[in-house]
Amino acid sequence: MDMEAKAVVNSNNISGLIERTLNYVDPRLVDHGKRVASLVYGMLEAQKKYSAKDMQDICILAMLHDIGAYKTEEINRMTQFESEDIWEHSIYGYLFLANLSPLKEWARAVMFHHVAAVHLPDSLEEPIREAAQMISLADRIDIYLQENTDPPNLFVSLEKVRDTKFDSHILDLFYEAERQFSLLACLEEEKDFHKILPNVQLSGKECEEYLRMMIFAIDFRSQHTVTHTITTTRISCCAASHMGLSDAQIHNIFYGALLHDLGKIGIPVEILEYPGKLSSQAMAVMRTHVDLTEKILGGTIDEEITKIALRHHEKLDGSGYPRGLTRDALTIEERIVAVSDIVSALLGTRSYKEAFSKEKTLSILEEQAGEGKIDSDVVAALKANFDTVLEEVEDSCRPILDTYYGLRKEYQYLLGKYLYSSTEAADPADRSHK
């Protein structure tokens, strides 16, 4: 991303944007993440050991500690605690945060947040060990309280795993934080992240990285959609540049295209990956991604950018969705992103098709322009500069694909190292307190 993010996302709106985005996968994990972050913040406040910046990063890490589990089937297993295998989401969450967020320094704590204290590697740095243990303890406390309403028994249960599941000083830190701040009573309050961390301060670069993290949380769900958002964004900006649009217009197009598919995080993967034509019922679900995007943006993003994001499936003749808008209601910026989204879909692979050739892609675009569905000037600009646009798209996609395949390779390596190793043991469910 080569444009300033501060005018679009900032410390005031980025946490809400993240929260609403991930909430559409499964609210259980987001609400759980906020409660874990609240408990961790209390422990950090009582400890008074880390800087304000480190405390902020650890709390955001705590909120996102289950980000590797944004697959419905694993969420169900996790929330019911029926799975002994916790390495999958822990490792993927670590890799995701280490590579695609500003939390690189603390990300390893997520990989070990289900590991008992006695099994943590000796080589683990003390701050990472503490962060992992705080998140682990907060995670267990919240799960316990969701299933039980007897805090006295919680303390009895925690004492049973002192120096095995949890380091003694982490347990004592929680007790002190509970004494000072009544953490357990506060958990019952509904809160957004700003109430947990009221003075959150993120740089423009950090906000941009969190925005990128959200985009990839969506696109990385399927190997067929890894580069779709970036491809759509790059094609849109290239077309706008060749058509002579202003820098301000291109700025809005950039972010409108970047945000256009946020709502797809709420669409089941089996629909996104369906190998063929969707049924009318499935298509109706697919089309809700635009409505979900609108809810996620929540009125916090510039109105012009929001409209660009929400209108990428509208057609000039009124046959598009969700509002059936016509030519006069659609700006040139909105028309460019709508055409670019089609080009990205045609040039990309899907579960039901191979990538289309340049000739077939242009033929489809010209046919739709001839039918009055999409803007003929945008199609003409892309046709005249198609090879140049494709070169720029390839340059943009290469690092993303490298990251994606690098993550997959490292994931398999770490999974083999920890999940299948007889020397490493984890006690994820820790049912001794139930």
Indicate the mean pLDDT: 88
Report the radius of gyration as a whole number of Å: 23 Å
How would you classify the helix and strand content by structural class? Answer: mainly alpha
Total number of distinct structural domains? 2
The helix content is: 55-70%
The CATH first-level class of the largest domain comes to Mainly Alpha
Number of strands: 0
* Contiguous helical run count: 21
Order of helices and strands: HHHHHHHHHHHHHHHHHHHHH
The CATH homologous superfamily of the largest domain is called Hypothetical protein af1432
Portion in strands: under 5%
- What's the CATH architecture name of the largest domain? Orthogonal Bundle
Oligomer: single chain
What global shape is seen? elongated
Q: Would you tell me which CATH topology of the largest domain applies?
A: Hypothetical protein af1432
Main sheet summary: none
Distance between the termini: 47 Å
The poorly predicted ranges are: 422-434
Protein name: HD-GYP domain-containing protein
Pfam families: HD, HD_5
Domain HD-GYP: 203-398
